[in-house]
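[Help] Beginner question about ligand-bound structures

Sorry if this is basic. My supervisor gave me a protein sequence and a SMILES string for coenzyme A and asked me to "get the holo structure". I don't really know what that means in practice or what format the answer should be in. Inputs are pasted below exactly as I got them.
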Amino acid sequence: MGVLFYNPAMAFTLRSYEPHDFAALHKLDQACFPAGISYSKTTLRYFLTLASADCVVAVEGIHVAGFVLSEENPPLAHIITLDVDERQRRNGVGTALLQRLESNLSARGVRSVLLETAIDNEAAVAFWQRHGYRIEATLKRYYLGRLDAYEMRKLLLPPASKTDKRPGEKN
Ligand SMILES: CC(C)(COP(=O)(O)OP(=O)(O)OC[C@H]1O[C@@H](n2cnc3c(N)ncnc32)[C@H](O)[C@@H]1OP(=O)(O)O)[C@@H](O)C(=O)NCCC(=O)NCCS
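Answer (accepted):
No worries, everyone starts somewhere. Holo just means with the ligand present. The predicted complex, written as structure tokens, is below.
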């Protein structure tokens, strides 16, 4: 069951990936990244079918507005991609997807999340930094043998335990 998010511009639901989403996710990834950086159907299907994969999808009605895909080996996880439909950017979809993914990962013992992003992808670098990801290294010629990438990392806190109490808090 999904959770509905409202903002003045759009309402969307987050849910787990379902196999019938595949064509829409592939189309969105092709639209989000240049040829050679976007994933082929074979590669995208490979990642989605990993036992260690998590994929959260944002849907507006029947339309896929975005998705985030990761793989994990707790305490480490790697974000494979985060894609938001160009028409629906700056509406909090990427943020909602990332927060849900981080919450899922944290609950499964992930404490460190790594990703790569092209250094000329200013929107993405700003987005990741806004969400606490820090540049750890520059990977020379990481994409297409010529485009540099930043390796970025965020450390996740363990989920708050139900028994954790703030000072003065009763039950
Ligand atoms: C990066 C991306 C996922 C952001 O998704 P989004 O839904 O637009 O992000 P949000 O609306 O949640 O933005 C949250 C914050 O990130 C930052 N941000 C997002 N896009 C930005 C941009 N174009 N320029 C500067 N800052 C930006 C802002 O701080 C923004 O907060 P604000 O809107 O209150 O200023 C989206 O631009 C995208 O899909 N890009 C193409 C694919 C890609 O590059 N993916 C990431 C690399 S794997």
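A couple of things worth pointing out: The CA atoms of residues 63 and 105 lie 25 Å apart. Strands lie at 3-6, 11-16, 53-60, 63-73, 76-84, 112-118, 134-143, 147-155. Feel free to follow up in the thread.
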